[in-house]
Write a structure and sequence with these properties.
By secondary structure, the protein is an alpha+beta fold. It has a single domain, classed as Nuclear Transport Factor 2, Chain: A (Roll). The protein is built from 9 helices and 5 strands, in the order H-H-H-H-H-H-H-H-E-E-E-E-E-H.
């Protein structure tokens, strides 16, 4: 049942991303990246079913991001129609500050993160962040009528510095999709550093492709390739050149 639900969800997203011409050479599963970003964005966007007073602190972070993003989308609807690329700025202003891209990059690179220099780590984290924003922010132009449900935490937040926030994404006429946010408490508050849909992690899904390119071209070659793709995706719906 979980596999069927995941495939149904991923197929819906794949159709949208194929129509837009958005592709990534680092993702092996068709439609998979859109599923992750749609969950990341839309779960933060539509949180109407949660009652703020009953939420833990990490859950309230997600609720707050949802409220901010939804309000910004309403206020700037006309601008987004005229300038679709302005969605990048909204995501960077509202969502990006609550994602720990350094830790996400660590997970995505695995052992190669430990072998990289400080300069390479910083350059990769910045390029990876830009790639995720540029590739997937256009989900805001496509997905509508979603609701998010918070599931009970498995342990008290007060006792944890690292926690899984379990949710379900609900859309009309479809089965709920299980989404888990991995978050940790930093000096800047609770931040997300990975997201999983039906048990499949965003970070680990990138890892094999990144490792292959590093073996072939080195860390600098991977960073250079991601930067090239980012330049090709300066506007939503723009298809990158084939490599």
């Amino acid at each position: 049942m979980q596999v069927t639900r995941a495939l149904s969800w991923m197929w819906t997203v794949m159709e949208i991303w194929t129509k837009q011409g958005c592709h990534s050479p680092f993702i092996k599963r068709p439609g998979f990246p859109g599923a992750f970003l749609s969950c990341l964005i839309l779960v933060l966007w539509f949180c109407g079913s949660a009652i703020a007073g009953t939420l833990s602190e990490p859950q309230r972070v997600i609720q707050s991001l949802s409220d901010q993003m939804q309000q910004a989308l309403r206020d700037r609807h006309s601008e987004l129609q005229r300038e679709p690329e302005s969605i990048f700025r909204l995501v960077e202003q509202i969502l990006v500050p609550r994602v720990d891209f350094s830790r996400l990059s660590n997970l995505a690179l695995g052992k190669h993160w430990r072998e990289a220099t400080d300069e390479q780590r910083q350059a990769f984290a910045q390029a990876f962040q830009s790639m995720l924003v540029r590739t997937y922010a256009t989900a805001f132009h496509e997905f509508k009528m979603w609701e998010m449900r918070f599931l009970p935490l498995r342990s008290a937040v007060e006792d944890q510095q690292d926690i899984e926030v379990r949710t379900q994404v609900v859309r009309p006429g479809a089965q709920p999709v299980d989404v888990i946010y991995r978050m940790h408490n930093t000096g800047l508050g609770w931040m997300a550093y990975d997201v999983s849909i039906e048990g499949i992690s965003l970070a680990t899904n990138y890892r094999s492709s990144f490792s292959k390119m590093i073996r072939q071209h080195g860390m600098d070659g991977l960073i250079r390739r991601i930067s090239e793709l980012n330049q090709q995706r300066l506007k939503p719906n723009q298809e990158p050149e084939k490599s």
